[in-house]
Write a structure and sequence with these properties.
With about 800 residues, this protein is of the alpha/beta class. It contains 26 helices and 24 strands. It has a seven-stranded mixed beta sheet with strand order 18-19-17-16-20-23-24. The longest helix is centred in the N-terminal third of the chain and has 52 residues.
Length: about 800
């Protein structure tokens, strides 16, 4: 080849994919492409020489001239072997570098004109120094790398030609084809060694980093494997001891639950710590059960899980109206809450207190609120709760310790924003075990309940998203600090018209479904329902009414079963056949005007009621007797009425010494029922004056108001309930304190239109309206505080 050194010559070309051959390098190639096979065959026909060049892209199946590097290696084909799959395995030996001058026109295979490139041999000291550096770096590389065997170093050490040394070392490095090609194209020996030195440096640094990372990962792996190995050993030991899977399996299960659970980081840390404690506990330890129970509670609580509110006000209004008739204030409050939620997106859960008599729908409205908001509903009853731990839970040191009812309710809900009903909050009591009402202060305070602390859980739980609804029959039984934290919504009793609507639209339908009756099998007329309301129930709510409707359905069901195909229509005349004789008399409180008997109005926890106050004057020594199981306030009110009567004896034309020669007995019937409060003051005074003067009291009049010693009439509470009771009893005229005139707007129009309400500010006005007959004994003028119209009579409100 000596004479042809600088002359261009024609050679077949074999493009290589992902490979590069250096001069003096021997390796096997598998050739499968059609053009490459023909190039090999051509080379074998000539002098077994072929040019090996690399492709720039490995994926190209049919490379063009631009896809093949210009510098390659002229190689000698030493051996060819045809494999069964059709490919040819070739043993080639690189001889010298060569550059493609031009491509020859050949469609069968690649044929090129090449110019050989020979390197100049130099023996400069600088080259020797570079060779030593390269060998030193390569040795370090071999020590770090697992990819190059130590025997390679021995083979390389014997090479004394600098260019060949660079080529051989480069062939052993895991470099990209682009970098290897760069070395191949570097014809100067010194430049080639310098580039190789830089590449070796880079590779060695990368290997150092890989080794450090590998060691770090290995340590972590070893730790994990060690823990796994030890746990498996523990399992095996426990199995041998008869503990089956024992605590190890339990701990693994808890760890997997913890990974899936959504909770704050502080809670997660606490659970992890408790699981580690549990793991170290002996299987027989009693403390282990306590820890396990504690972990279960922490994992079960909805720390972050919540439902998304349905903020559609119109939809909520439809749902609330579907479930309940009336109850305007609670419904309005819920819709206001929804509207604000839409505007601010985040609002602390309101705390509502629904106060009203039994059976008006306090508990069921809370359930409807949850349905309208698309929230979970939880109800706990506080009636009779007298232990603080019922609210806050017990410390874990006690046997059988549990969280309080609030945390239990949150677990049952599974979300941290349910509607939470605290039923009968006024029925809580206190004893030596603490005051549960005081424990509720934190729960029902919007400013504090975001970090509610339960004695069992010992971690702050966020209750600020919960909508608390409480119910009570009487406000005065709720401790003042607790009441202060709640928004009180009064739900009064229903009027007769409202009861009729509720019965026909809700109760009948519900009871028919409960008793398996079809719509056409039973018909109850409106007149029948009205009779049931008037003569078989006397309540503020509709619970008793529902029981009577259920009774109608039961008796009808029996008739239908006895006589199949029977269709029952119940009219007003048939009601006694189903429910028996009337239980209450509807109509006038008294059938005729009475002397010494006056109809008073009372407020009870179950609604308003009428009561007759009777006074009898007997010959005696001035003794005042009070009977009917009266409370202290009511007794004092009777004393005030008695003193007022004595002070007005002259004007009333009563003997001034009547109290010395007569015994006076004041009695309020239904003596077994306790009665208290000041609102019967004017009623007692009227009955006493009627009895002493012999003048009858109008049967159509009822009254309520507190009396003072000077005869002034002071305001009272519960006017709406009292008015409804008067309406039920058939009263036509109600005397009420002047200062209660503003409360008349709360009374339904259906009641107000059928009764006359007369505001009074002094006892003289009461007597004027209550006593029947010519009143000529009121000689003193009525006090200036009374507002009179031009005709001189007090103003009447209809």
């Amino acid at each position: 080849m000596g004479p042809n050194r600088n002359r261009a010559r024609k050679l077949p070309l074999l493009p290589l994919r992902g490979l590069l051959v250096y001069p003096s390098m021997v390796l096997h190639l598998d050739v499968g492409r059609e053009k490459s096979v023909k190039a090999l065959e051509r080379a074998m026909v000539e002098d077994s020489l072929i040019l090996l060049c690399s492709q720039s892209e490995i994926n190209i199946e049919e490379p063009t001239r631009e896809d093949i590097y210009r510098v390659g290696t002229i190689s000698k084909i030493r051996q060819m072997l045809k494999l069964p799959n059709g490919t040819i395995r070739v043993l080639v030996e690189g001889i010298t570098r060569a550059e493609i001058v031009e491509f020859a026109a050949n469609d069968e295979y690649y044929e090129v004109m090449v110019k050989e490139l020979h390197e100049e041999e130099t023996a400069a000291p600088e080259i020797h120094a570079l060779m030593r550096s390269v060998l030193s770096q390569f040795e370090q590389y071999i020590n770090l790398s697992k990819k190059v065997t130590p025997e390679t170093m021995a083979a390389v050490m014997d090479i004394d030609q600098p260019g060949r040394l660079a080529d051989v070392i480069c062939s052993h490095l895991p470099l990209k084809i682009k970098d290897k090609q760069e070395i191949l194209e570097t014809f100067g020996v010194r430049e080639r060694l310098e580039k190789l030195l830089a590449m070796l440096n880079n590779e060695r640094e990368v290997l150092e980093l890989e080794r450090k990372i590998s060691q770090r990962v290995k340590k972590q792996m070893e730790k994990t494997q060690k823990e796994y190995y030890l746990r498996e050993q523990m399992k095996a030991i426990q199995k041998e001891l008869g503990d089956k899977e024992g605590r190890a399996g339990e701990v693994e299960e808890l760890r997997s639950q913890l990974e899936e659970a959504q909770m704050p980081d502080k809670v997660r840390e606490k659970v992890e710590k408790e699981i580690d404690r549990l793991e170290k506990m002996p299987a027989t330890s009693a403390e282990g059960g306590v820890i396990r129970n504690y972990i279960d509670w922490l994992l079960a609580l909805p720390w972050t899980n919540k439902t998304f509110d349905d903020l559609d006000i119109h939809n909520a209004e439809v749902i609330l109206n579907e479930d309940h008739y009336g109850l305007e204030k609670p419904k309005e409050r819920v819709l206001e809450y929804l509207a604000v939620q839409q505007l601010v997106k985040k609002l602390k859960g309101p705390i509502l207190c629904l106060v009203g008599p039994p059976g008006v729908g306090k508990t069921s409205i809370a359930r409807s609120i949850a349905r309208s908001l698309n929230r979970k509903f939880i109800r706990i009853s506080l009636g009779g709760v007298r232990d603080e731990a019922e609210i806050r839970g017990h410390r874990r040191t006690y046997v059988g310790a549990m969280p309080g009812r609030v945390i239990q309710g949150m677990k049952s809900a599974g979300t941290n924003n349910p509607v939470f009903l605290l039923d009968e909050i006024d029925k809580m009591a206190m004893d030596f075990r603490g005051d549960p009402a005081a424990a509720l202060l934190e729960v029902l305070d919007p400013e504090q309940n975001s970090t509610f602390s339960d004695h069992f859980i010992e971690l702050p739980f966020d209750l600020s998203n919960v909508m608390f609804v409480t119910t009570a029959n009487a406000v005065h039984n709720i401790p003042r600090p607790l009441l202060d934290r709640m928004e009180v919504l009064y739900i009064p009793g229903y009027t007769e018209i409202e009861k009729l609507q509720i019965a026909s639209n809700y109760l009948i339908k519900k009871q028919k479904e409960d008793h398996g009756l079809k719509e056409e099998q039973l018909q109850v007329t409106e007149a029948a329902l009205q009779r049931v309301i008037r003569e078989y129930t006397r309540e503020a709510g509709v619970r008793n009414l529902e029981q009577q409707v259920a009774s109608l359905c039961r008796k009808s069901a029996r008739q239908i079963v006895t006589e199949p195909g029977n269709h029952i229509v119940i009219d007003a005349e048939q009601v006694p056949d189903y429910l028996g004789p009337s239980k209450f008399r509807y109509g006038m409180a008294e059938l005729e005007d009475q002397i010494g008997a006056v109809t008073g109005l009372a407020w009870t926890e179950v609604g308003g009621d009428t009561l007759v106050i009777e006074v009898t004057v007997l010959p005696g020594a001035g003794k005042l007797m009070l009977t009917g199981k009266l409370g202290d306030v009511m007794k004092e009110s009777a004393q005030a009425a008695f003193s007022y009567t004595r002070s007005r004896a002259a004007q009333l034309k009563i003997p001034e010494d009547f109290h010395e020669k007569n015994d006076i007995h004041i009695h309020i019937p239904e003596g077994a029922i306790p009665k208290d409060g000041p609102s019967a003051g004017i009623t007692i005074a009227t009955a006493l004056i009627s009895s002493l003067t012999g003048m009858p009291v109008s049967k159509e009049v009822a009254m309520t108001g507190e009396i003072t010693l000077r005869g002034r009439v002071l305001p009272i509470g519960g006017l709406k309930e009292k008015s409804l009771a008067a309406h039920r009893a058939g009263i036509k005229k109600v005397l009420l304190p002047k200062e209660n005139e503003k409360d008349l707007q709360d009374i339904p129009d259906s009641v107000r239109n059928e009764m006359t309400f007369i505001p009074v500010s002094h006892m003289d006005q009461v007597l004027e309206h209550a006593l029947v007959g010519e009143i000529d004994f009121l000689t003193t003028p009525i006090q200036e505080s009374v507002n009179e119209d031009e005709s001189g009579s007090s103003r009447v409100c209809h």
